[in-house]
């Protein structure tokens, strides 16, 4: 529940008491969470499988020599972050949702290895998702600068600077995720072996202890300050600030596209069709990138609003945010998987490159056309005749 986007990992006992402590006005939400949790694992693995393959396609296509541009470099690393998110979430959904032992509470497991994986997942998924958010912000910023400042924007937004920005984002997010790694922990619970009816199966003299691992959260003693720092980082830098930045950049991109459209119409009215078509292609590319940004905004905005409400009052975190955690997760996973569909439907260059790389059965040249050999002869100054051959 909300492991991808919610680093405030609660103890499993607290999570499973949500239904018992829920307020009357949120009982319907708690019931929805309980029923949807039975389906969440299956939905997640389908999305993860599709998204993993789709992002591999994105990486291969966007790294072709004819596709190397500053925005495509950022899109490539966005696909890398999304791919690792899918790869990490798949075993989590399998073990803790689909194959979860019926007698265990949420996020409990009997395997020590799975407990280590859960801690890794709680940190790595936040890292990948946060990198993806800030890469999307960088993508929108680069595109806006190129459109709004057509003279010096493309000169400033180079491939080299795009790589520098990517490195800064990844390095900064890794540092900012250190407090999250520190406070996430685990604990063990000993249970006597019981049968399905809850009766002890062994005599008192021969009882065996069933070791169960569950997540824990360091927030006492010296960890109080780390806990506060982590909550501020996750709420402000990874939730509220990105939502605000994405909203502003969406408005700026729409304004820039409208401005570019009017310029294109003015060029067409002047009879400068070739230049107008070139501006039209740029607008289509901007539209595709705008769709990527808007989808991220639609995914992150509900979390940003709930995060602000949770900071104001703890009631919203326990009774609203946590029951919606699985829904927020599946929304984030779908957003990570859908970019391939956007690129394929909105970019002709992406489609052509994809076909040339993966569709070997498709003819690379139009049928019915043959290459013709042209023989040219010319006389040089010394009187010698030179024959050249060319193909068209």
UniProtKB/TrEMBL annotation:
Checking PROSITE patterns in the record gives: G_PROTEIN_RECEP_F1_2 (PS50262)
Which GO molecular function annotation, any one, does this entry have? Answer: G protein-coupled peptide receptor activity
Q: Which residues form the signal peptide?
A: none
Keyword annotations for this protein, in alphabetical order, are: Membrane, Transmembrane, Transmembrane helix
Residues crossing the lipid bilayer are 42-62, 74-98, 118-144, 165-186, 236-258, 288-312, 324-343
Ranges of residues in domain G-protein coupled receptors family 1 profile? 54-343
Major place of residence:
membrane
Q: Where in the cell is it found?
A: Membrane
Q: Name one GO cellular component term.
A: plasma membrane
Q: What is this protein called?
A: G-protein coupled receptors family 1 profile domain-containing protein
Q: Which organism is it from?
A: Dreissena polymorpha (Zebra mussel)
Question: Highest lineage ranks of the organism?
Answer: Eukaryota, Metazoa, Spiralia, Lophotrochozoa, Mollusca
């Amino acid at each position: 529940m909300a492991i991808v986007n919610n680093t405030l990992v609660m103890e499993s006992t607290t999570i499973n008491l949500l239904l018992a402590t829920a307020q009357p006005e949120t009982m319907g939400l708690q019931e929805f969470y309980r029923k949807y949790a039975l389906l969440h694992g299956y939905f997640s693995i389908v999305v993860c499988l599709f998204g993993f393959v789709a992002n591999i396609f994105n990486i291969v296509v966007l790294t072709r020599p004819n596709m190397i541009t500053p925005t495509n470099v950022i899109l490539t690393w966005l696909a890398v972050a999304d791919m690792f998110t899918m790869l990490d979430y798949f075993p989590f959904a399998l073990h803790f949702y689909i194959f979860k032992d019926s007698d265990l509470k949420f996020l409990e497991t009997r395997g020590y290895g799975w407990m280590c994986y859960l801690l890794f997942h709680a940190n790595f998924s936040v890292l990948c998702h946060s990198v993806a958010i800030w890469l999307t912000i960088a993508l929108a910023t680069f595109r806006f600068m190129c459109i709004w400042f057509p003279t010096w924007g493309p000169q400033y937004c180079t491939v080299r600077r795009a790589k520098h920005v990517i490195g800064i984002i990844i390095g900064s997010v890794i540092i900012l995720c250190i407090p999250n790694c520190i406070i996430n922990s685990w604990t063990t619970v000993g249970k006597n072996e019981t049968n399905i009816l809850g009766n002890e199966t062994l005599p008192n003299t021969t009882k065996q202890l069933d070791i169960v691992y569950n997540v824990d959260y360091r927030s006492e003693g010296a960890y109080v300050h780390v806990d506060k720092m982590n909550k501020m980082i996750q709420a402000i830098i990874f939730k509220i600030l990105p939502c605000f930045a994405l909203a502003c950049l969406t408005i700026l991109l729409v304004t820039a596209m409208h401005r570019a459209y009017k310029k294109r119409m003015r060029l067409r009215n002047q009879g400068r069709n070739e230049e107008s078509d070139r501006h039209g292609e740029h607008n289509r590319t901007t539209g595709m990138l705008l769709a990527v940004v808007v989808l991220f905004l639609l995914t992150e905005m509900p979390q940003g609003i709930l995060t602000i409400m949770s900071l104001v009052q703890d009631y919203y975190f326990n009774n609203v945010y946590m029951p919606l955690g699985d829904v927020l997760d599946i929304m984030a996973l779908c957003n990570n998987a859908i970019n391939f569909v956007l690129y394929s439907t909105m970019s002709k260059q992406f489609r052509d490159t994809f076909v040339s790389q993966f569709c070997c059965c498709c003819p690379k040249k139009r049928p019915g056309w043959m290459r013709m050999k042209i023989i040219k002869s010319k006389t040089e100054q010394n009187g010698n005749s030179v024959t050249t051959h060319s193909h068209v």
